[in-house]
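User: Predict structure, ligand NAP.
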Amino acid sequence: MPDYSTRITLANQRALITGASRGLGAEIASVFADAGADLVITGRDAAGLEATRQVVAKKGRRCLSIEADLRTVEGPRLAGERALEFLGTVDILVNNAGVVFVENLLESSLAHWEETQNVNLRAPFLLAQTVVPKMIAQRRGKLINISSLAGVLAPEGHGAYSASKAGLNLLTQAMAAEWARYNIQANAVAPTVILTAMGRQVWGDPLKGDPMKARIPSRRFGEPVEVADLVLFLASPASDFICGQVIRMDGGLSSC
Ligand code: NAP
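Assistant: Predicted complex:
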């Protein structure tokens, strides 16, 4: 009987997780701490970051929180550099932070378009540029980009968001193509609605949410821990031959 605890583990691993002040990022931080990783977490909301940091610290792992605005060029670069200083290296980068403005393309302001592209697509690129050289030097690394089913399909009112996540999916493939030779695996996770602040903001009204649930073969939305479990697998040695994939997590929605 194989001992899976030696395969799906993050013992001695050091991870940088963006957008960990709430939602999926906070859940991923908690699950990563359970699996044995030391962490750097980022966001803008100091109170939310501190709450996540305390959860991780209670599990006995080291954790530094960094306030960084990923709309800027400097934010991701400085966050990456400070993570390298604190952890020594970043073995796992989880590009989780994201924003959505639900509006049709003709209503979308340039400011919303730019914020969406900069947080969802440019920041993962800039963070990877900062931490991947050390991954290459150590011949080991994991990049997990939190995309969306809206990066594969184009739900109404999500045009800027869909464009950013579709870009993130191809960026993931480009990362895999360039860096797999150094034993670095880049993959993306593409969930449908997950019950976080963002999920509730967009789909919380039953008048909108119930018809959406009815279209999902599993007849429900996802839970944050279900995404975190997949991210854990993609961060662990158990997934070392999975590379360049965009894994849909949608209760079957895109199958029918
Ligand atoms: P959330 O609850 O709204 O959390 C978003 C996180 O991103 C927060 O920690 C927020 O931190 C951070 N963030 C946003 N703008 C930022 C900025 N300018 N600088 C730094 N951090 C920023 O959303 P979530 O549901 O957990 O979403 C996490 C990821 O999953 C996103 O990439 C999202 O697109 C993706 N996703 C979510 C769903 C869903 O239904 N929930 C479905 C598919 C994909 P601060 O506010 O502290 O800055």
